[in-house]
Each structure stands twice: as structure tokens, then as C-alpha cells.
Amino acid sequence: xxxxxxxxYPGARPFSPDQQHLFFGREKAVRELYGLIQLQQLIxxxxxSGLGKSSLLNAGILxxxxxxxxxxxxxIRFNAWTxxxxxxPAQIAREAIRKGYEQxxxxxxxxxxxxxxWYAAKTRQLNDTKSGVSKGxxxxxxxxxxxxxxxxxxxxxxxxxxxxxxQTAVPQRVxxxxxxxxxAQPDLISNEDEDxxxxxxxxRIVCAIRSDRMSLLDILKPxxxxxxxxxxxxxxxxxxxxxAAIVQPAKMAGDFISLPFEYTPQALDTMLGYLTxxxxxxxxxxxxxxxxxxxxxxxxxxxxxxxxxxGDPEEVFRNYYDNQIARIExxxxxxxxxxxxxxxxxxxxxxxxxxxxxxxxxxDFEISDDLxxxxxDTHLLRAEPSLRGGYTYELSHDTLVVPVLKAxxxxxxxEQKALEAAEAAAREAELANERRKKRRxxxxxxxxxxxxxxxxxxxxxxxxQRRKADEAKQKAEQALSQFKIEQAARNRLEIEKRLxxxxxxxxxxxxxxxxxxxxxxxxxxxxxxxxxxxxxxxRLLQSR
Length: 544
Hints:
The protein is of the alpha/beta class. It contains 20 helices and twelve strands. A five-stranded parallel β-sheet has the order 2-3-4-1-5, with helices on both faces.
């Protein structure tokens, strides 16, 4: 397989500009949005999350605008604000516009310290004009809701500069400074420079934002009253559009990882039936399902997909979760990721997604920023800018809730079995150790007793006299009596130890181990009342 070969379906990731040849089903949306860009200076592109705004821009609009040639496209992301972040939105946008256009123009002579978006765009235009290029700018602000995570002053600063870029041919401060220099230094600015200054820039702006964050745009209305005048709502894929998005990439010739393949009508019906069962088709589900089909083509060299090859689509999403988790090589990180997703981001009782702030995730689940980023990159999680700054995280799609809960059941069962096995091994080790101790003590006692008897017998034999034999016998009996007394004392000590151990295990909640201790004591003295009473008490507790 060669490095430049690619999949026919991007899966959970948005389409990129170099995948425009695979981007099907959105021809109507591309045509309508492109038409608006030709007519309007500012357009708000909005839809619910997961319908493909980024893909529409990346693989639909940006390549088309570049091919048309009248506008240069810049795709700008602010990313959410965090406390240690120093770059503000106006600076991020300004640097993106100015990048590659570092040559000085006459603007630096008359107003060297200007840091506005207008100044950056004008500098770009003046450099292009000097090079014989005459192109406008299309600025695309994807995930525009991220702007509103920044401090209030940063939002207002961007709003002022954004409005000036849209509404002002030449800012009054620049015009006044130009007039002053014309009087003070007439040779500094040529007539050609003045004409270039007055030449109006062609600026087009598209801001992409989630439907549920549209109200945030009201914050910019004082500076940009017309911000909501031109809106385009991206709708869910229709069944016909979804069919094209499934079928067309599969048929294409090219340098792909998989061979070209086709779907039977029954296979398409199975896929579309699943994708539309809950309402409109969502791009996320379609791409994951199609990517699994393509993998089957790769694995089995099967170029004719029927409904049996599709199988159970629910299984596809379960496997998607399991496979992405399995790709985390570090076992501790893998377990941390599973606990975050399965215990923190899903409400099991209602089978729905939950949202957590990044600070909660770090504190409660010990997830590193790097692991969190990787979970977002695999599209198991979705990061959303928080109005407090930073991000909140949630499971990327409702479809993954059931597979996640099933995976949780399997994990908990596995952990429970491992725990039970560890406890059983610990109990067995403890019992084996106690058996060894008891056997050793018993053998020592027998050996002592035998030695005592042999000593007495030897004494009787040596004396050879009845009287002395009687005395020796008496001494042997006394020794035996003393041995029994000592053995009884040792037994009492051993029983006391078992009672103490049992009490410790009972307090720790390990009733199995506590009862094991009592059973060892009963083996020494089955008539002991304390052992019998305690055994009855613990067995009663165990049965509850």
C-alpha cells in the first residue's frame, strides 16, 4: 500500500479540501451557498451539530471559489479561549490575513502602528496590486462560536475591527493622516498611492456556527447590525442526497486503498432504512457506516456489496467504539478513557449523553490534555467551546450511547471476575500458610513427646531395678502430664489468635476469611464455646 492512497470515505472526520472529488450529495447546498457568496458580503452558515458545515466549506465551497479564481480563500479558527492564551481573535484573524504579505507599503509610512483587520487586508491588496494580481478575499470563520469564549473586551475589539473591514473603504484615521502627510510631505505619497488607497477591497465573509449558538451573534449587533441579514441553514441530507454520498465514492476510479465496488439495491435499502429510522440522515452516521463497508471490501476483496454484507449497523457503531479505544496503547490511559466515557459522559438510566467541563475531566478522571485531544481526534468525543473559556466535552453522537453502555457492562463484569479471582487467591494463600504453621507445630509436639518417651524407656532399661523403673515411669507420666498442660496452653493461645484474626477480618468486611479463621480454631478444639458462638454469628451475617 502506498502512502498517497486514501479511503473513499473520511469516516468521522470532516472532508478536507483535497477530498472534494469524493464529496457527493451536497451539490444543491454548494450551489446555493456559492450563489450567496457572489451576492452578499457577509453570510452566516448555520445548522445543528454534526450535519457537515465544515465538510461543506472544506470540500465544497473553498475549492470551488479557488477554481473560480476571483477570491483568495482563508479558513480561520479562533479555538476556545483559555487562561494562559495570549492571542486574541483580532490578532489571530489579522495574522492569518497578513501571512505571506510582509512587504512594506506606503501605509507603513503614514500609519505604522495600525493593527486592524482593515489594515492587514489593505496591505495584502496593495501587495497584490503591485504584483499585478487583482483578487478579493473570502474569509471563512469555522466554529465561529469559539469567538464568544474570549473575554468581553476581546470580543468587542474583534467586533469593531470586523465591522470596519466590512463597512469602511478607508478609515477616517487613515484618511486624516494621509491628508496631513500630503500637506507636510507632498512627495511621500504619489497620486498612484492615493488611487490605490481609495480602491475598494472585495471582501466576502462566511461565519459557520451551530444553530443552538445563534443567539450569541446578538453580541456583535451593535457593531455589525446586519450580521443576521444573510443566513444559510444547512439541512440534513435527503434520502436522494444520502444515496449519492454512499454510491458515488464507491464507483470512482483512482488511487484508493480499496477497489471500486457497488451496492445492490437491497444493500442500499438496508443502509438508508437504518440511517433514516430516527428522522433525517446525519453525515456522521453515514460516513461511519460507509467506512465499515469499505473496510470489508479491503479485507475480503468483495466488490459487490449486498444486504448480508451490511449486517447489523448497530454492530458497526459498537465496533467503532471498541476499535478506537483499543488503539490507545497504554493500558492505564485506555482504562482512564473508558471510565471517562462510560461513567462520566453517559447517563445510564436514561441512555443519553452528558457534558463535562475540561477541568472536571482532569480532576475526576485523571485524563491528560494529550489523551483528551486524541479522543477528540478519533471523534469519540466532541469538544465544544465553553462561554467560561476552554472547552466542554461530550460523546460525539447519540448513536454511540448504546455501544458505550454495552462496553461498560463487559468491562465491569471483567473487573468483578478479576477481583473475585484475586480475593480467592489471597484466601487460599492465607489458608495454605496457616496449614503449614499448624503442621509444623504438630510435628514438633510429636517429636518432643517421642523423645520424652524414649528417654524414660532408656532410663528404665539402664537402672534395671523395679523401684527405679517405677520412679522413671512416674516421671514419664509427670512429663506426659506436663506436656498435655503445655499443649492445652498452646491450644488456648492458638484459639485466641484465631478469634482475634476473625474479628479483624469481620471488621474489614471479609466474612469468608473470618469464618476460615474460626474453622481453623474449631479444628484445634471443636468444643470451644467462644468459637462456636462466633461461628454462629458470622454465618448468620454471611447469609444476609
